[in-house]
Amino acid sequence: MPDVTRRDFVRKSLAAGAVVSVAAGPATANTPSSDGGIRIVAVSCSPRKGKSTATTLQVCLDAAKEVSPRIETELIELAGLKINGNVAAGVPLEAGERDDFPALVPKLKDPRVRGLIIGTPVYFGNMSSLCKAFLERCIVLYQPDYALSNKAAGVVAVGGTRNGGQEATIQSVQMSLFCQEMILVGNGRPGSRLGATVWSGAEGGVLKDEFGMTTTKTLGRRVAQIALQLAGSTRPA
């Protein structure tokens, strides 16, 4: 095949993303749904299905639902999915290679989605490779629709030790979300932090990490509160 620059590939990828958007729903992704429902999606970027990161994100979503009956939630686990980050850099898939990312695009472009929570385990002080690949492939959500622009975003990091790089990981993920023009939020009151910092090594698992679960629940509530405000509601219900 002829040489293709990364810029050319990105332009074609963005165009492809627009086609997916048309097939999945209205191009005006930031228009609230007529039924008043506000959806918050959490994405677990752990390669292990149903483990600490997914468990923590479910706690986060449950806390978000408590804010208002208008809040709807969905947990997406990337474990077991094939997401090749090289595609975002202009490297084509091999013939017959499986790619599960396109199936996620309609979920993320759903007009009801007003909040996004990214959860990742901490590996060597940073996000998982699966998380990085996912965030890079989200380039198709940028131009021309800016599907994630002006939506609330929070980050959950699960580390093997109490201070195992969770905050550094959160900041790394946040940088990608900044580039999507998202409204980044932390825990909020009473103890504002960058996001949810969880310890998977707590005796009994993440649910027994009292401090981590506090940051997780407050993050979920904060994302829900901001999502409601961005959707035009100043009251929780």
Structural commentary:
This protein has 6 helices and 6 strands; from the N terminus they run H-E-H-E-H-E-H-E-H-E-E-H. By secondary structure, it is of the alpha/beta class. The chain has a single domain (about 5-230), classed as Rossmann fold. Strands 1, 2, 3, 4, 5 and 6 form a 6-stranded parallel sheet that branches. The protein is globular.
Summarize the entry for a quick read.
With 237 residues, the chain is α/β, with parallel strands linked by helices. It contains six helices and six strands, in the order H-E-H-E-H-E-H-E-H-E-E-H.
Protein traits:
237 residues, alpha/beta, Rossmann fold, globular, single chain
The helix/strand series, from N terminus to C terminus, equals HEHEHEHEHEEH
Mean pLDDT: 86
At the first level of CATH, the class is Alpha Beta
> How many domains?
1
CATH T-level fold name? Rossmann fold
Report the sheet-strand fraction: 15-25%
- Identify the overall geometry: globular
CATH homologous superfamily annotation: Flavodoxin domain
Q: Unreliable segments (pLDDT under 50, ≥5 consecutive)? A: 14-34
The percent of residues in helical segments reads 25-40%
Strand count, sense and closure of the main sheet? 6 strands, parallel
Round the Cα radius of gyration to an integer and report it: 17 Å
CA-to-CA gap between the ends?
A: 55 Å
CATH architecture: 3-Layer(aba) Sandwich
- Count of helices? 6
SS content category: alpha/beta
Give a count of the beta strands, DSSP E runs of length 2 or more: 6
- What's the quaternary structure here? single chain
